[in-house]
Amino acid sequence: MLQKFGHIPQLSVISIIDILVVAFLIYEFLKLIKGTRAIPMLVAVILLVGAFWLAHIEQLRTVDWLITTLFPYAVFALIVVFGAEIRHALARLGRRLSATRGGMFHATDSYEDIVLAAEQFSQTATGALIVIEREIGLRTFIESGVPLDANLSYDLLITIFRPSAPLHDGAVIVQKNRIAAAACFLPLSMNPVLSTQFGTRHRAAIGITEETDAISVVVSEETGAISIAAGGAIEREITVEYLRERLSELLRRYVPTATLPTMSDREMATDEREVEQLSREKDLADGAER
């Protein structure tokens, strides 16, 4: 039976590891380009490679010479065509390698102003896009806007995104606890599915998270709905409480929900005595009138 199938090579541990590594790389590549414009391009490349292989087998010398001549240039062409996907893959690898280093925000930083501003924008249906930088720098996108380098505050965010303000178009980029720039241009998501569901502001919020590890908080101008994007995915129509929890999770920090001030027991007892005294004085006054 073994002679019928010929010699079966023995698999070593190194060979198994080699196969698993190649399978993992192929799986990660396919998962990376799933749902993007790279899928039809990859199909076209596979068809061309198959056609060229058949031409080589059938000894079509002219086609074979053409392939041999153009192959070095085809490699550079593929790098240009799949440039965005390659950047995404490298950015994802960098995020995984630096996942244990923690976020860019420190203990003295605060994103509560972002949450409060998003709540105000939602109530007034004001369009807004706030991007929070983490490990991967956003200098390229910061330079596309108007530099501010100002302390992050609720009042400043409200002023920037006021519809009559000159900087309300574009995105605000936050570095640590400072607003680095406003009216910044961001890359739009090229996902064909998202392009039919979202407008420019939401596609920009997703696009910046596809190329970097940044976090985007976006408020719809039409409905006032709050959304948050991270890692190329977006969560739509979330509540302010969920936004606070999600930012705390993504930035690895905890900010307690603001609560109304309460009175101490001594203050409550003092107020009760004052109320009782006023009540007795009112009763005495009523009795004197009678």
Summarize the structure.
This protein is α+β, with helices and mostly antiparallel strands and 290 residues long.
What does this structure look like?
Strands 2-4-3-1-5-6-7 form a 7-stranded mixed sheet, sandwiched between helices. The protein has helices at 2-5, 13-33, 38-57, 61-81, 83-97, 112-124, 139-142, 154-160, 200-211, 240-250, 265-289; strands at residues 128-132, 146-151, 171-175, 178-184, 215-219, 226-230, 233-238. Helix 3 (38-57) runs antiparallel to helix 4 (61-81) and helix 6 (112-124) packs parallel to helix 8. It contains 11 helices and 7 strands. Helices cover 53% and strands 13% of the residues. The longest helix is centred in the C-terminal third of the chain and has 25 residues, at 265-289. The protein has 2 domains: 2-81, no CATH class; 112-250, YojJ-like (1.
Biggest sheet: strands side by side, in what order? 2-4-3-1-5-6-7
CATH H-level superfamily title of the largest domain = DNA integrity scanning protein, DisA, N-terminal domain
Runs in which pLDDT lies below 50 for 5 or more consecutive residues are 100-109, 254-269
Global Rg: 30 Å
Number of domains: 2
* Helix-and-strand structural type: alpha+beta
Helical segment tally? 11
- Level-1 CATH class name of the largest domain: Alpha Beta
Give the integer mean of the pLDDT values.
Answer: 77
Kindly, what is the distance between the CA atoms of the first and last residues, rounded to a whole number of angstroms? 122 Å
Biggest sheet statistics: 7 strands, mixed
Beta strand %:
5-15%
| Extended strand count | 7
Described by its quaternary structure, the protein is: single chain
Q: What is the 3D shape?
A: elongated
Using the coordinates shown, work out and report the CATH topology of the largest domain.
YojJ-like (1
